[in-house]
Amino acid sequence: MDVVVTGIGLRCCLGNLAQSWQCLVAGKSGIQRYQPFPELPAYPMGLIENSPILLNRLVQLVVEDALADAQLYPLLAECGIVIGSSRGCQALWEQLARQMQQEGCLPQNEVNWLETLPHQAAIIAARQVGTAEIVLSPMAACVTGLWAIAQGVDLIQQGRCQQVLAGAVEAPITPLTLTGFQQMGALAATGCYPFDKDREGLVLGEGGAVLLLESAEVARRRGASIYGRILGCGFTCDAYHLTAPAPDYHSGAIALKQSLKRAHLAQGDLDYLHAHGTSTPLNDRREAALIASLFPPSLPVSSTKGATGHTLGASGAMGVAFCLMALKYQQLPPCIGLNVPEFTLNLVTHARPSQIKQAMCLGFGFGGQNAAIALGRGLSTKHIAEQR
After folding, report:
1. Cβ neighbours around 1 below 10 Å, total
2. Residues 33, 35, 39, 40: what is their CA dihedral angle, to the nearest 10 degrees?
């Protein structure tokens, strides 16, 4: 059964989906230096607003955008929800902890701690659309968004849902998250430069992306516009280290091959690869070696984190959204921030037109998580009807 994408909701430091795509094509970055917490130094980061956004508001924005884009409106009682987050309501947890330390007890009439549980993003979306269907809240570090989309596809292909809102949201700008990455030596000092020989590290960014997934038949019946198809997904875990990828990238290669096999694609069939590309020395080196070992050197590759920052669990869902825009507009998004490539990949430095029929989005996360999703151009509703 074909699963298609008929709506996309996206927010990041570049704006909504249309604004973000325009900025990417123009080579613009939304990363700026901020100091949201007086006890910490200023860092480059990707903020949606002038101060850190709360998870609840971000979920509401991306779900609202996705439904409007798909021309659907609540109540959607039969729409499944699969929306994850790797950080969840951590900002509120830290706020509660500070207040408890100062006051000696749980603050009253401030934040209901029951509304800060790890599944809060999915629950907010479920209430927003009024669903009575299955609600899932996956968490798999930086591949959370890709895993959520794959679970949404499974629900449709198993016949459990005909429509699913799937993706991930992340509001990671908190004192603990910033301090943790700084202590690891992973934060950049000036900006995000994926695959550049002078890259410094990652830049944290806020963001989220939610896709409206449907069976092709349902999309046909309601005359929906189609961004593209989810062709195949692959997931593995090398369980090598708490934070570092396995040096032999064998497990990552298996995930990519799984995605290609399930998509019925050969390694030379891809027209664009959206890399994880965090701009950290180790990740980019290992990922570049993995890509070079599997794909022809002519395959165009880019990472959009130089423009959006690293949105952690939401990064894969955002990458899929940008792949779908590349398929729709037949344009390759550039690797913003890249000046002097360290690797021999065919890295896209400026947006350019290209014939794109199939694309793939990669993701890698702490704990050895490896993920890949292959996508194809959307069939017109007329074409879907002719295939029946």
Report:
1. 10
2. -20
Tell me which residue has tokens 């669990």: 313
When mean pLDDT is compared across 53-62, 68-77, 104-113, 185-194, the lowest value belongs to: 104-113
Determine the average pLDDT of the residues in 306-335: 98
**Which tokens hold the place of 364?**
């890698």
pLDDT at 300 over 80: yes
pLDDT for position 95? 87
Buried b (16+ CB within 10 A) or exposed e, 42-52: ebbbbbbeeeb
Cα–Cα distance between 86 and 163 in angstroms, integer? 24
Catalytic residues: 142, 276, 310
In the chain, beta strands by DSSP E: 3-12, 15-16, 32-34, 43-45, 79-84, 135-136, 163-170, 207-215, 228-237, 272-274, 300-302, 331-332, 346-347, 352-353, 358-365, 369-377
- 380's CB contacts (< 8 A; 6+ apart) are 226
- For residue 7, the model assigns a pLDDT of 98
Q: At what angle do helices 17-25 and 315-329 cross, to 10 degrees?
A: 70
3-state SS string for 150-187 = HHHHHHHHCCCCCEEEEEEEECCCCHHHHHHHHHHCCE
The C-alpha atoms of residue 298 and residue 307 are separated, in whole angstroms, by: 24
Identify the sign of the CA torsion 294, 296, 299, 302.
positive
Per the listing, tokens 């692959």 go with 234
Burial track 327-363 (b if 16+ CB lie within 10 A, e otherwise): bbeebbbbbbbbeebbbebbbbeebeeeebebbbbbb
**Three-class secondary structure of residue 55 per DSSP:** helix
Which structure tokens are listed for 368?
């050895």
Encoding tokens for residue 6? 């008929």
330: DSSP letter: T
pTM (global) more than 0.70? yes
Among residues 146, 174, 167, the alpha carbon closest in space to that of 234 is found at: 146
Helix (H) and strand (E) counts in the chain:
12, 16
pLDDT score for 299 = 98
State the Cα–Cα distance between residues 139 and 182, nearest whole angstrom: 23
